[in-house]
Amino acid sequence: xxxxxxxxxxxxxxxxxxxxxxxxxxxxxxxxxxxxxxxxxxxxxxxxxxxxxxxxxxxxxxxxxxxxxxxxxxxxxxxxxxxxxxxxxxxxxxxxxxxxxxxxxxxxxxxxxxxxxxxxxxxxxxxxxxxxxxxxxxxxxxxxxxxxxxxxxxxxxxxxxxxxxxxxxxxxxxxxxxxxxxxxxxxxxxxxxxxxxxxxxxxxxxxxxxxxxxxxxxxxxxxxxxxxxxxxxxxxxxxxxxxxxxxxxxxxxxxxxxxxxxxxxxxxxxxxxxxxxxxxxxxxxx
Length: 286
Ligand SMILES: [Zn+2]
What we know:
It is built from 8 helices and 18 strands. By secondary structure, the protein is α+β, with helices and mostly antiparallel strands.
């Protein structure tokens, strides 16, 4: 009888620990993903996965819509953190809904963010900059393209409480971008917004291109990079930029990460032989 009681008590204790582990803060959330780039650790921080709608597409042939996204397409809203030996970098701040929980789950606190890079000023990228009317990342130095800062009142408001905001001039694909910090180069990718900037992160001989909103509907914009979306401020320029950046990333065999690429959101590009001028995105294995 006593043995039965001890066994029962043991099962109860085990069940408690198992359920505690499920809710524990140190268990990585499902919407994070980690990859190593040289001496850096890169973390996907997803605000959520969703199903995209074909109604946002501009310039898509109806037969392509039917062929590539007949039943919708997977999408997401992401930010990325990079842990370097010199401090933690954050690329965009998402909506600010899951961001802080995601950061905590990979062992990063808001005070740990030393450098904050903004691709552009839309709400799904700057929503997490301010929390309870104060800067969410009080120790961060912020980097944003001067042209984007001048264009957007929303981003000026969101950054008003930050002590250090550096207005940068991104370089071009041709010159390999402008180094804004050791291991981070800024490259202009205008079109989605007037100052939309992408970032090339480099450690050792490994490189990752964080391409912001270069794409929104991978399922059709990979085989047909000339398709833009209604969120693109200048859809024609956005399509030209998309084509150049995709070619660059494919030719240079870069690892790429996007703010609207579905989980795991990081992968490589291959030329798509069936769709000349198009690409295939090959996600990293989960
Ligand atoms: Zn966006």
